[in-house]
Protein: Signal recognition particle receptor FtsY
Organism: Microbaculum marinisediminis
Amino acid sequence: MSEEKSGPSLMDRLLGRKAPEDQAVATGTDKPGTAEPATDQSGADVSETGRSGTEKPRSWLQRLRAGLSRSSSALGQNLTALIRKRKLDDETLQDLEDILIQADLGVETAVRITERLAKERYDKEIDDVELRTVLAQEIEAVLEPVAKPLAIDPAKSPHVILVVGVNGAGKTTTIGKLAAQFRREGRSVVLGAGDTFRAAAIEQLKIWGERTGATVVAREQGSDASALAFEALQQARAAQADVVMIDTAGRLQNRTELMAELEKIVRVIRKQDETAPHDVLLVLDATTGQNAMNQTEIFRQVCGVTGLAMTKLDGTARGGILVAIAAKHGLPVHVIGVGEGVDDLHPFTASEFARAIVGEAIDGDATEGGDAGREP
Ligand SMILES: Nc1nc2c(ncn2[C@@H]2O[C@H](COP(=O)(O)OP(=O)(O)OP(=O)(O)O)[C@@H](O)[C@H]2O)c(=O)[nH]1
Ligand SMILES: [Mg+2]
């Protein structure tokens, strides 16, 4: 598949934007704590990126595979070097375990893979393809139980989704993409602009509302986030909306006072519907690497995360961490983001992800089948 990096598109240059890959890195949580994300926050503008100008459209699988290259190429090169001359003895198995851990897959999965190989292939030669096949199978086995769609319960009126995560993870964009998806399914959607810190954040959500036909409930900048969440739910109930998604301000998991605010949002939502929020979606930026594990742990403790979305898998991603998180937490992984556009959100599938990580050729890779019917 093509790995070519075209520069910024004409549209990007006209608007003074960076190439998508640079953006993904620039907005990653490598430099967390910034109250203001570094890039353009307009949902409408960024939808053009990766779809216009000189850039060749790629299938979402191609984007995923290219994006996972940081995990998979480190893994691939190391595996090739490891296997070239040696039999699968104790030392080689130990080296393999180290390589898998370095690729962010986590100790548990690394041990699982080496144990299987020790059992089946000890002291035998194994070639690259066989090894990758075993890896892909084992990674898929870890991911399969967590690959679950974000199911809207029609009995809830509305189904409440609280969206949380660190600064710049992709919360608002994911809400916009999900709103588009739900609207295509014929559902009525209310968006609560619970990121009340920045005027730009409220504007960004309003733009997504306009684009998707979702109603946005917003208050002025600086108002109380939990009061906003309460009001959004109240309006959604009055309008008998199918879904309400509540955006929140990005917060670092180690900022206790901000995390306490999330607890309060949940408490206030429950005053109207004690079964809500029905989903607490934690958005993780794939370029973050190991820190995503820590984010999952703390957000889970504070606000009862029920599922994950992983964004920026089209960038120079380190999605291997998702395998470690799946093994440790068993939380459903609902969707993955493979671009900034409205249709760049896809259901998470274990086999595709596993094969992309080990760099194995994916049958029908060039097909756009996964994108079919997803345009708004
Ligand atoms: N390449 C790529 N970029 C993405 C993806 N998802 C989001 N982004 C971009 O990441 C940047 C941050 O996204 P937001 O949705 O504003 O993130 P956020 O979590 O709401 O940020 P805060 O509200 O500031 O905490 C924007 O430039 C998005 O366009 C993705 O899947 N791929
Ligand atoms: Mg936001």
